[in-house]
Amino acid sequence: MTIEKLQKNQRKMHAKIYQCAQEQGMIKENFWEPICDGVPDIEGYLSSNPKIMWLLKEPYDDFTVKGKPKGGGWPLTTHLRKSKIWQDEAMWKLMIQITYAIHNDLNWKDLDYISDNPEMKKELSKIAYINLSKMPYDTVSSDAHLWECYQIWKDILLEQIQLYTPDIIIFGNTFKFFKEDLQITEKPIRTVSGQWNTDAYKKNNTILIDAYHPSRKGGEDGSSDYVTSVVKAVRKFL
Asked: What is the pTM assigned to this prediction?
């Protein structure tokens, strides 16, 4: 797929996300709108080898005075291009470490500090970043809530996988929602590193990684076992 075609199709996908939210009665004026996801740097993504998609849970934004989530109406595809976003949360640092290690065939012990290696920061722009839900929510999501979200957004999510045709999908504790629709029936290959277990599958030339969510997994210095488990799981098939 060309850069121009994927840019055009991503714009169409963002319109579909808004349409779905509208049809579901989710959009409330000046209160709650979708946060569209996808690929920030389409040229960088298409030139990546392998192309990597992260499939996480849901975005969050502001809160009302009663503690209810609100906000939205801004694109993650723009937000992830900010040069200092990786400093905001440990989650971003781990995603950078894992993606950079895969793209450069490195182990955790070989990785630089992100602040010392500007090239590492670019990894967040070169991935396909997809959330199971497209609406603002809290930092903690129950499985019951996420199952409801999956039923709402399932068609769009499966279309996003087809649109971006990733070589690797890293599921951040979201694989269970997709397993049946992706028709995964075989047993996984399991990788263990410290306290982290990561399962790997392969379906139609796509490597599927069933991993823990990258939030609160030790940060840049303490992430050795988590990063290692995911990278080793990828290498089972890569």
From this structure: 0.92
